[in-house]
Every structure is written in structure tokens, then in C-alpha cells.
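To: structure desk
From: M.T.
Subject: fold request, one chain
Message: Could you run this one when you get a chance? Sequence is below, nothing fancy, just the single chain.
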Amino acid sequence: MYCEQDVVYRYDGSWQGFLCCIHESVYHKTIPFAILPWDEPCMTLFPEQPIETEPEKARRVSASFSRKMGFGARELVMQAFLCDEANKELALLRFLLLGYQVGPRVMAMLGHADVAPVRRMEQQVTHEAHQFTGFLRFVDYGSFLGACITPKSYVLPLLRAHFCQRYPEENFVIYDRTHRAALIYQDHAAGYAQLAEPPAFPQVSEEEAGFQALWKQFYKTIAIQARKNPRVRSTHCPKRYWVDMLELQGER
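Reply: Done. C-alpha cells follow.
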């Protein structure tokens, strides 16, 4: 039986760090008031407990997901963890504690109060990542391709496989403005980087500027003015994506 405690777990914000918070909770059979990264302000006077990131503990906790809850549990939790929703860590903890208790049945308990929020977060992340596979726009800088996105969730890990498989012979950088992070693919190897400042992309060439102008003209030419429907367009391509789409920049 787990008891709730008036304490706030503090961790480094990483996936492995979060797994160590799960280990702490399960080992001591306690549920903290909140689980927060170090850089997130705390709105309570409850005492804080620092949780160190230990790779071996994280490995054991990660391995337990599939063993206790069956196929798909680890992927579900990992993808939900990419969401930027407040209190996501505590929601994930409650889901996992339930899963440890009931086993694989937890994956089908869609209406349960501790399952529904995690499913919703996972769907939010995967939907947004899917949208970016179509809405992301690369710019050719000569020696590499560059793109900027402004997502709500940290979707770079979900975009990695898609774009590395789509452009295996290209070098490219996808910069996430929201999280100040970049996915870098160079010489058939991919990695991530946290950036203090946005990357300084070089000036586009005259050839690239010409292709951009042609793309804008193509977009305008194929439009049927008589069937223009701003509401439908915003439904299929929400306005928050427009800032990073060449053909829609500047539109309202």
C-alpha cells in the first residue's frame, strides 16, 4: 500500500532521472506531492527531496515496464513523458503504480482515472509529431538542410526515425525553438543538442531563394479562390504551424 507524502521530488528533467524518481517511490512505497525538474518553480512550501540520476536504477525500472505490464507499456510511458503538460510526472507515476498492481490489464483500462491522462498525453505527442512530418519545411544551405519548428511537446525523438530514413544521404538540422534543442543528422549518425541560443544558419543561396519563390508561387497558383475556406484550412493545418511554413508565413 502506498501512502501520499507532502514532499516534492526534484530531478534533472531527463528520462533516466524520471525513472529514478519511480524507483524512489516504489522502493519507499510513497507518492510525493509533485515531481518537478530542478528548473521548474515550485508553488508549495513542502520540503524538497533531490533524486539523483543513477543509470543502473533507471535501467531496472525501464525493464520492469514490459515485464510487469506487457508489450507497449514502455513506449506509451516514454511518449507521454515527451508531453509538456504540467504534473505529467505525477500522472505517469500513478499510471505505473496501477500497472504494477494489475499487470497487463492496465493497457486496456482506458476509462480509469490513472490511465486516461497518460493515454491523452501520448496521443497529443504522437499526433503533433505526425503533423510535423508533413508541415516541417527544410531550407537547403548547401552543405546541409536546416529547419525550425515550434512544437508544444518535445517531439524531436519521434521525428528522428522519419527524417533519417527519408533523407539518409543528407546532413540536416531540425531546431526546436520551444525547447531550445536540435536534432542533428550528420554522416549517417543522429544526435541531440541543447542550445543556449538559436543556431546561426547561413544566408541562403540565390538558387535556394529562387526555389522558395517558386514554391510560394506554386502554392498560390493551385489555390481555388472560389472555394477558399479559412476555417477548414485552419482545421487541417492549425495556425500555430504557419510560422515555420514558408508558404504560409505572414498570413493570418
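Reply (cont.): The two ends are 54 Å apart (CA to CA). Let me know if you need anything else for the meeting.
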